[in-house]
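Researcher: Next sequence.
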Amino acid sequence: MELSCRFKSLLIRDVIFDWILKRWSAFERYAHNGHLPIDNNTCENTIRPIALGKKNWLFVGSERAGKRVAAIQSLLGTAKLNGLNPTQWLNETLEKLPTWPYSRIDELLPLSPDALQKLKH
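Model: Next structure:
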């Protein structure tokens, strides 16, 4: 019985090492960059309402309309993840958009000020 348990633990260790070696470059990025999350649970929780209502999304009218809905949902989810009020962000952005210079369009993204600073550096 002891040998069997030892064999299983060695096998598990080998599986873990094999798994991490196959993903080494991603692991290095995570280890060297302190602001990256270890998992994507936050993203999955954000898209869950969309996934649960996907039958309703079949009726958006066309593929082009579906792509627009997906883009808008992504922007609203990003706003929420960055601590912004999605409705307020969307209203302010739609008011600014007609006169906003295209060269500064990234400033309208629903990112927190800290996230925008990190993008610029």
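Model: The mean pLDDT is 81. The first helix runs from residue 2 to 22.
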